[in-house]
Design brief:
238 residues, Arc Repressor Mutant, subunit A, Herpes Virus-1, 3-stranded antiparallel beta sheet
Length: 238
């Protein structure tokens, strides 16, 4: 049954992309962008389909000459949170196109939601509290899927002390002393201790990495953070 559900959802996602492409053919860019939001509400969608979606979204933004691209900002935030190099590539292209239009959208817009969610969690939760994605999303006016990915990444990176309950879609807050004092490298996903001399972090999104690994990333992909895609400026340690 679960396998059939996943197959059904993937077929539905493909149909949404096809419908959006038909909209673009009549220059309904806003309608095409709005259609794509439905895909992010589905569970179990194949990565290849998500990549196709972001490739198409980038084409829409490039073709639209600035028309209705403001509607795509939340989709681009989600794109960064997938941590997929192909999706990041498309998001970077889309941002470059958006910045070339007269109604420029600063790249910091992509980080604002993450900062707001982290600030809310720090100021509104205590030890062993459980807080739902739905509650945070409603309080901040951000869509559920964006909040969910922000929480997952924040716990993964060590920016929030807690655990993310995927089943109940809740953040479980833990006391500070239970922190393992370690992060995961955004490149290799292996642990990096806080006192490791190899530890560096992005100045803007605070993603952690081994220095040697981030240097390899720079050689391959250029001087942009692999998480937030801002111009790479590194900070030592925590």
């Amino acid at each position: 049954m679960i396998k059939l559900d996943i197959i059904s959802m993937n077929k539905k996602a493909k149909a949404i992309i096809k419908k959006a492409k038909d909209m673009v053919s009549i220059s309904d860019y806003e309608g095409a962008i709005n259609e794509l939001y439905y895909i992010l509400e589905m569970d179990g969608i194949d990565t290849e389909i998500i990549r196709d979606m972001y490739e198409f979204l980038t084409e829409v933004i490039e073709k639209s000459n600035g028309n209705d691209v403001i509607n795509a900002v939340a989709l681009l935030i989600n794109g960064h949170l997938f941590e997929d190099p192909f999706i990041d590539m498309h998001v970077s292209r889309a941002l470059q196109a958006m910045e070339s239009y007269s109604t420029k959208i600063p790249i910091t817009a992509l980080m604002n939601s993450r900062d707001r969610v982290l600030h809310w969690c720090v100021t509104n939760t205590g030890e062993f509290d459980r807080v739902s994605v739905e509650k945070i999303a409603k309080e901040l006016g951000i869509d559920n899927s964006t909040v969910e990915k922000i929480l997952e990444n924040a716990v993964f990176d060590g920016d929030l002390i807690g655990e993310y309950d995927e089943l109940k879609k809740e953040l479980v807050c833990l006391p500070f002393e239970q922190e393992k004092r370690q992060l995961k490298c955004v490149i290799c996903h292996q642990m990096v201790m806080f006192d490791d001399p190899e530890l560096v972090r992005c100045k803007y999104c605070k993603s952690a990495a081994h220095r040697s690994h981030i240097m390899e990333w720079v050689k391959a992909a250029g001087e942009k953070c692999p998480r937030c895609m801002s111009k790479l400026e590194l900070q030592e340690g925590i």
